[in-house]
């Protein structure tokens, strides 16, 4: 965990995110360090620096970005390249170990659709709680709850405890709430595989509308189709570093070919 204090949350300035040479390290206290090679650069993941007493995963290295209102940024990269960690840095959840990160605006982090859900309370109650968790007020959620309920098509199940839902039903509920909010900064980690194809199509339209009314989007995804639909620029992450940052088509082409 990072204990430095180089991350700032600012709410009065125009919305945006600025990082300068930001690094994020994860020290691993229970690693079997004697069996690790000195410095490992595998095909996936960040670097592991095992030349010290406590091995360190170098999850992000020298990240410098300046994202302003209207930015629609996709994040691409191999497994373990640092996309989710970067989203957490941009959300102000992780502080940089070195360098700085400034977040200006109200952030809605949508990393794990299930976070903030309680299995023991009803679907309706979960809609309210998840909305509050994502920065909405109680009044705003009361105005949206009927629309969300219709969207989920869960009917009377909305009165049942969440533990009685299938995985796909939970995702429907979570997506209904997430796509109803009005965020200044929307940070999205793709994770909607469990819904059926027809519902996914319906969710896409709501996701597009959500992105249109949010001030700034950063979206990590392995789906080119989704990235093209929601983003106009992209960042290619590789081993914790930004390999390329530019127009989405240029970055996708470079990422596929392995050459910027
Ligand atoms: N909580 C953590 N503790 C230790 N190491 C972590 C932690 N979270 C991420 N890492 C490491 O940081 C690196 C970047 O991981 P991250 O989850 O950001 O990758 P990703 O690009 O989102 O990958 P994927 O596409 O597989 O979801 C990886 O090497 C991973 O092992």
UniProtKB/TrEMBL annotation:
<dbReference type="GO" id="GO:0140359">
    <property type="term" value="F:ABC-type transporter activity"/>
</dbReference>
<protein>
    <submittedName>
        <fullName>ABC-2 type transport system ATP-binding protein</fullName>
    </submittedName>
</protein>
<keyword id="KW-0067">ATP-binding</keyword>
<dbReference type="InterPro" id="IPR027417">
    <property type="entry name" value="P-loop_NTPase"/>
</dbReference>
<dbReference type="InterPro" id="IPR003593">
    <property type="entry name" value="AAA+_ATPase"/>
</dbReference>
<dbReference type="GO" id="GO:0016020">
    <property type="term" value="C:membrane"/>
</dbReference>
<keyword id="KW-0813">Transport</keyword>
<dbReference type="InterPro" id="IPR003439">
    <property type="entry name" value="ABC_transporter-like_ATP-bd"/>
</dbReference>
<dbReference type="Pfam" id="PF00005">
    <property type="entry name" value="ABC_tran"/>
</dbReference>
<keyword id="KW-0547">Nucleotide-binding</keyword>
<feature type="domain" description="ABC transporter">
    <location>
        <begin position="31"/>
        <end position="260"/>
    </location>
</feature>
<dbReference type="GO" id="GO:0016887">
    <property type="term" value="F:ATP hydrolysis activity"/>
</dbReference>
<dbReference type="InterPro" id="IPR015860">
    <property type="entry name" value="ABC_transpr_TagH-like"/>
</dbReference>
<dbReference type="InterPro" id="IPR050683">
    <property type="entry name" value="Bact_Polysacc_Export_ATP-bd"/>
</dbReference>
<dbReference type="GO" id="GO:0005524">
    <property type="term" value="F:ATP binding"/>
</dbReference>
<comment type="similarity">
    <text>Belongs to the ABC transporter superfamily.</text>
</comment>
């Amino acid at each position: 965990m990072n204990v430095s204090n180089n991350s700032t949350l600012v709410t009065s300035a125009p919305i945006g995110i600025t990082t300068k040479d930001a690094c994020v390290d994860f020290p691993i206290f229970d690693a079997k360090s004697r069996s690790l090679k000195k410095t490992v650069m595998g095909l996936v993941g960040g670097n592991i620096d095992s030349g010290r007493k406590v091995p360190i995963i170098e999850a992000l290295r020298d990240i410098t970005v300046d994202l302003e209102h209207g930015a629609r940024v996709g994040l691409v990269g191999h497994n373990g390249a640092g996309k989710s960690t970067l989203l957490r840095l941009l959300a102000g959840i992780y502080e940089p170990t070195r360098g700085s990160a400034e977040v200006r605006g109200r952030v809605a982090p949508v990393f794990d659709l299930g976070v903030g859900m309680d299995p023991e309370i009803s679907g309706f109650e979960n809609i309210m709680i998840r909305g509050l968790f994502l920065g909405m007020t109680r009044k705003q959620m009361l105005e949206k709850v009927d629309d969300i309920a219709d969207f989920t098509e869960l009917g009377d199940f909305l009165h049942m405890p969440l533990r009685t839902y299938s995985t796909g039903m939970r995702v429907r509920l979570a997506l209904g709430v997430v796509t109803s909010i009005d965020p200044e900064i929307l940070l999205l980690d793709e994770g909607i595989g469990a819904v059926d194809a027809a519902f996914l199509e319906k969710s896409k339209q709501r996701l597009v509308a959500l992105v249109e009314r949010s001030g700034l989007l950063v979206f990590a995804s392995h789906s080119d189709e989704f990235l093209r639909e929601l983003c106009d620029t992209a960042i290619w992450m590789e081993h914790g570093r930004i390999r390329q940052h530019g127009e989405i088509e240029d970055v996708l082409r470079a990422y596929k070919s392995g050459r910027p």
